[in-house]
Specification:
By secondary structure, the chain is mostly helical. The chain contains two helices and no strands. It has one domain.
Amino acid sequence: MSTINSLVHHIDQLLTQHRDLQRSNRQLQERVSILEQSLEKQPDNRPSDGGNHTLEADLNHLIGLFDQGTPPNHD
């Protein structure tokens, strides 16, 4: 019985982590969408090269966080 309880607890932890990753994924997608929209609205106000590097670094960071999430398994 102890093994079953341990497995149930572990599965519960995995499901909780999965929900957290899905929530983070949605938040990151929303943030990327907002950033893309703000860039599309302001094509004349492009940042200087230094700003481009900062924006690129921010986007790469967001993409890296997004890539850390695992897609849901719908078996």
